[in-house]
Write a structure and sequence with these properties.
The structure is a single chain. The chain is α/β, with parallel strands linked by helices. 31% of the residues lie in helices and 22% in strands. It is built from 11 helices and 12 strands. It has helices spanning 64-71, 94-100, 121-133, 137-150, 156-159, 169-181, 199-216, 227-233, 251-256, 261-268, 307-311, and strands at 18-31, 34-48, 53-57, 79-84, 87-88, 104-107, 187-191, 219-224, 236-241, 244-250, 317-318, 324-325. Helix 7 (199-216) links the parallel strand 7 and strand 8. Helix 3 (121-133) packs across helix 4 (137-150) and helix 6 (169-181) packs parallel to helix 7. The model is unreliable at 1-6 (pLDDT under 50).
């Protein structure tokens, strides 16, 4: 019989799968010969329901991957609280962290870099099945084959003995998904899982992830810079810039009626977007991530900026439209 620490997550009725409260991640840097701090994740709050996909959208450097790594406990949070499946995992270590890996897994951006080049597909699946599910012998062989069939890697007998360099990018990412599923997780962080794949096979991988969500009631944090895929796969979209959340809304509603100037700029740069609102940026400088900064982090680029924006940081506020936006003049 398994110990209480090894038991799988059980959620109370109505309890979200993931709760993030006031999350902060800080990294030390040298500025002017002195030690300073940057905050790529600056007091972030959100929830993800059971079987829900939250798409986290933003340009490179906005803090998306840092949030994902903090949720997976690859990066240590500096402050705040992370609750997954009703358990506070903010600062767990040792055995508790190993047990947490059974509830939460990550699919990385580079399917070649995340796989060991000298191990076969079969060996990649054997490790989590042995460590977390204690499978051996025929049971191990059969389960690995079931996982490969589940993610569409057939014929199974031929695929299982191949090395990563013998697979296409899409096939490698399917191996990574199968490996993540090996421990029967309830929550997946998918960090740009299709950005390094050919356009022709991206839809197939997203369709697979969507089917797995429905079949196993999986919750996802889907990290992407692509608003088109965020709309297709995400139930809600959360827009991030400079370590802070700019806007959150239902996926279709956000695409149809964006309220934050940054979201509008992202949409204007998305191919095929029907909204062609002209919003010239005032600067192309990277956001100021230094701790202790004042004002809105988007102020230097915002076409609607005022003195109030430069002095006062807006709070993420629920609007009448149902959106939550961090802007003094969101509409």
């Amino acid at each position: 019989m398994s110990s209480p620490a090894m038991q799988k997550t059980t959620l109370a009725v109505g309890q979200p799968m993931v709760q993030v409260e006031d999350l902060v991640v800080r990294f030390p840097i040298r500025s002017g010969g002195r030690r300073a701090w940057i905050t790529p994740v600056d007091h972030v709050n959100f929830t993800i329901g059971r079987g829900e996909v939250l798409a986290l959208v933003g340009e490179s450097g906005s803090g998306k991957t840092t949030i994902g790594k903090a949720l997976m406990r690859i990066v240590e949070p500096s402050a705040g609280k992370i609750v997954v499946g009703g358990k506070d995992v903010s600062h767990i270590k040792g055995r508790s962290l190993a047990d947490y890996r059974e509830d939460a897994q990550m699919i990385f951006q580079d399917p070649f870099g995340s796989l060991n080049a000298v191990k076969t597909v079969e060996q990649h699946l054997y490790f989590p099945l042995k460590k977390h599910r204690q499978l051996r012998g025929d049971d191990l062989y059969i389960k690995a084959g079931e996982l490969l069939e589940l993610v569409g890697l057939t014929p199974v007998r031929e695929t299982r003995i191949k090395f990563p360099n013998e697979l296409s990018g899409g096939q490698r990412q399917r191996v990574a998904i199968a490996r993540a599923l090996a421990v029967d997780p309830k929550f997946l962080v998918a960090d740009e899982p299709i950005s390094m794949l050919d356009v022709s096979i991206r839809a197939g991988v997203l369709k697979l992830m969507n089917q797995l969500k429905d079949d196993f009631k999986l919750s996802y944090l889907y990290i992407t810079h692509d608003l088109a895929s965020a709309r297709y796969f995400g139930d809600r979209i959360m827009v991030m810039y400079g370590g802070q959340i700019m806007e959150t809304a239902d996926s279709r509603e956000l695409i149809r009626r964006p309220t934050h100037p940054y979201t509008k700029l992202l949409l204007a740069a998305t191919p095929g977007n029907p909204i062609r609102e002209k919003l010239p940026e005032t600067s192309n400088l990277a956001p100021n991530l230094l701790e202790g900064r004042t004002g809105c982090v988007f102020a230097s680029r915002c076409p609607l900026v005022t003195d109030r924006c430069r002095e006062e940081m807006p709070k993420l506020t629920v609007l009448e439209t149902g959106h939550s936006a961090a802007c003094h003049y969101a509409s």
